[in-house]
Each structure stands twice: as C-alpha cells, then as structure tokens.
Design brief:
7-stranded mixed sheet; 238 residues; 11 strands; alpha/beta; Glycerol-3-phosphate (1)-acyltransferase; single chain
Length: 238
C-alpha cells in the first residue's frame, strides 16, 4: 500500500501493479536511475520486498541501519564467494514465497541510458521456477539525480510493472549461460519498452573500448515461433 507520507512529497503514477501476485515468490527487476528507486518501489508495492544493495551502504552511518531494516541484502560487487552468498540469501527469500528485487544493471545509470542486464535474476528465476517482473521507473532522476544529496519535493515520477517473464520458456534450451542471457535480454527489452530509454549493450559503469564495440538496439526483436513472444534484443554495431 502506498505510504501516505510519500504521496504528500511526490506525485507517483503507478501502473501494472495488478500484475503482481498476491502471494508466492517473484523477482522484480527495475531499471535504476536514482537513489530513491528502492524506497519508492518498497513504499508502493503492497507486499514486502527484499532488495540487493551494494555492500558499501553498510559502511555509511546514514544507510547501515535503515537499509537492512527495509530488507536489503548487501552484495559485494567484486564478485566471487561474497557475491554468491548474497544470491544464496536471495534464493532463501524466494523459497519462502516472498518478493525479491534486484537491479539487473547492477548499479545506477549515470547517463540516463539503459545498460546491459547482468544474469543474476535469470539464474534465480530458473533455479526457483518463479517469474521475473520487469519494472520501468521514470522521473526519479529528476527528483534526486545520482550526485544529489537530497531529493527535490513536489515532483512527479512513474513506476510501471511489466508483464511477467516466466522461466519455463527458457528451461532446457541448451547451455545454462545462454538461457540466462536470453532471459535477461528479454527483461531489458521490456524495461526499454516501458521507459523509452536508449539501450546500450554494455554494463553500467563500463565503457566500450572503441566506438565499434558500442551496440545500439534496433526496433526488431527475435520472435519465438512457438509463442510469438519477442525473445531477445537485436544489437548492431554503431
């Protein structure tokens, strides 16, 4: 349920919330353009959400208590065993039948573009059998840009829950890593459709080595002939 205090601070347009299950596990994958994204999604979804957040938040007195209280699971972005333990904790959340949120881009977009999605959410979905819901957030970067210390009040933003992407369509498709990649490409396509962001085919925080490695996404997507569903972003060097 939307927190009344939030409605007095900002005008939040919400859509697609009726798509979320009233019970049982699901993964929410939002784009990430502002520090406020997790809080606003948490305040507007009527069920509790456990979020992955960067472990550095535990080093600051401003966030080390409030974020875990909101259900944040700290993840070490350097990878290895620490990152794996965070995904194990996320697996526990889903197996308890709860909602889990993870930013597929891995970090906030500092240029407003939508970046290539990492495969953690797909790994969880295929391991647990629960759906992924793409979430498109717009306008929060105007409320609190990446480097701003405080949010601006009385501004508007929107949060849209996309259609569920079900893991059974990607099961038994050969190599696991290809199934993960294909599923996340569909997630990112859906987020792009909701937000209208420009998609770049490299990870947030990284820059391509040369202009020839920048991938731009066309408006054409591969279509599964069996389901008629758009499957994967089609990239061309640009």
């Amino acid at each position: 349920m939307l927190n009344p205090a939030v409605t007095r601070l900002w005008n939040i347009e919400m859509s697609g919330y009726d798509r979320l299950p009233t019970e049982g596990p699901a993964i929410l994958c939002p784009n990430h353009i502002s520090f406020l994204d997790s809080a606003l999604l948490t305040f507007t979804v009527p069920r509790n959400i456990s979020f992955v957040g960067k472990a550095e938040y535990m080093d600051s007195w401003k966030t080390k208590f409030i974020f875990p209280a909101m259900g944040m699971i700290p993840i070490d972005r350097s990878g290895g065993e620490r990152s794996s333990s965070a995904l194990d904790a996320a697996m526990g959340v889903l197996r308890r039948g709860e909602l889990f949120g993870i930013y597929p881009e891995g970090t906030r977009s500092r240029n407003g573009k939508l970046h290539k999605g990492r495969t953690g959410a797909a790994r969880l979905a295929l391991a647990t059998g629960c759906p992924i819901y793409p979430v498109g957030i717009a306008g929060t970067d105007a409320i609190q840009p990446p480097d701003a210390k405080m949010p601006k009040l009385r501004k508007s933003c929107s949060i849209t829950i996309g259609r569920p992407i079900k893991p059974e369509r990607y099961a038994n498709r050969g190599a696991e890593h290809l199934a993960w990649r294909s599923m996340m490409d569909e997630v990112m396509f859906e987020i792009r459709e909701i937000t209208g962001q420009e998609y770049v085919h490299y990870y947030a925080g990284e820059e391509p080595e040369s202009a020839t490695r920048v991938a731009t996404i066309t408006d054409v997507a591969k279509v599964d002939p069996a389901s008629g569903v758009k499957q994967k972003l089609v990239a061309s060097a640009g």
